[in-house]
Design a protein that fits this description.
alpha+beta, Aminopeptidase, 2 domains, 11 helices, about 25% strand, globular
Length: about 350
């Protein structure tokens, strides 16, 4: 590598897109991740660029002329610059445009060094689990909603991944009803989808009423216990009032007892004041991102909902060459997510 801000390191990382290679990269995500969104490596719809040392990689996909990188690289941060310069070199060689999607603050200096323009499109909500409790005045609304569900007979459990086949048909029926009720189609790339092989890789939080599952969320957890989160969250027609608050709070308490440090509630869109300051180009695509660009699309996308859990908010960015390249890249991203 080099210290020069205008010269890229020699791109030595290797690309992986074959199924066997994808599986190996996904397994590496589990071994090295400190963020739960690394689990998106298991969805089977991405390519990977692996560091020369083999202990770090980034996830990406090519759509049209756009080379779209999802999130921060996974693995030791010392390899991140190498990986990002390498994907830049590959995109340039293919006369493509590079788009870094959902990147965090640690990537910002590298993106600036690469000459990319940054746009803040939202913030991630993270709850510290050390000392997490419902018994505070600030948690009154969540506590009240959870107790409504409890009085309706709601019971919480985390089903281990090894036991998922026994409940898969029940979960599938709930998922199908939820998608139809919300008029949603399954998404891809930046979110998971209900596919039995994918679901069976993770533990699953469930809410039961009289033995029947009425809500579920597949659980993402990093091996170092740094972060816990969920991917798909779906419920049946007869989920009791307060059921999702009940699921979240019980999972956070379970995470605390299991030694996890943080719980990620995912992204929230820009607030109204910030949105009004956006450039015209960005405004055209903001609505799509706010609907589909985060894991919690459907019913928990509002910042106000996540604010109930008193999280810390951290900015997330999109980086691109700027101008019309941003708009064209986001159009390709929409096609990738919605396919």
């Amino acid at each position: 590598s080099t210290d020069s801000p205008i010269a890229a390191p020699t791109p030595t990382p290797r690309a992986s897109s074959a199924p066997a290679s994808r599986s190996a990269c996904a397994s590496a995500a589990v071994a090295h991740a400190d963020r739960t969104d690394a689990m998106l490596a298991f969805t089977g719809d991405k390519r990977f660029l692996v560091s020369d040392s083999g202990d770090a990689f980034l996830m990406y996909q090519v759509k049209g002329a756009s080379w779209i990188v999802l999130g921060d690289p996974v693995g030791p941060s010392e390899a991140w610059s190498e990986l990002l310069w390498a994907i830049r070199a590959r995109a340039d060689a293919a006369q493509g445009r590079l788009l870094l999607y959902q990147i965090g603050l640690r990537i910002v200096p590298i993106a600036i060094e690469m000459g990319l323009k940054l746009v803040k499109y939202g913030e991630e909500a993270t709850v510290e689990l050390d000392g997490f409790t419902l018994e505070t005045p600030e948690m009154r609304s969540v506590r009240k909603a959870s107790r409504v569900a409890e009085r309706a007979g709601a019971q919480f459990a985390v089903v281990p991944a090894a036991e998922m086949p026994a409940i898969m048909a029940e979960l599938h029926a709930i998922s199908d009803w939820w998608l139809a009720d919300k008029n949603h189609a399954e998404k891809s790339f930046s979110v998971g989808r209900f596919e039995p092989g994918y679901m069976a890789k993770f533990d699953c939080a469930v809410v039961r009423i009289e033995g029947r599952i009425v809500a579920f969320a597949n659980v993402w957890g990093t091996p170092n216990r740094q972060e816990l989160s969920v991917d798909l969250m779906r419920h049946s027609e007869d989920m009791p009032q307060g059921g999702m608050d009940f699921l979240f709070t019980r999972l956070m308490l379970w995470g605390h007892d299991s030694g996890y440090r943080n719980f990620s509630l995912g992204m929230a869109p820009l607030s109204g004041i910030e949105a009004r300051r956006l450039s015209p180009t960005w405004s055209k695509v903001a609505a799509f991102l706010f609907r589909h660009g985060e894991r919690f699309y459907g019913f928990a996308g509002l910042r106000a909902y996540k604010e109930k859990f008193r999280p810390n908010w951290t900015p997330r960015y999109i980086a691109s060459p700027g101008g019309t390249s941003l708009l064209r890249g986001l159009i390709d991203l929409q096609a990738l997510v919605s396919r």
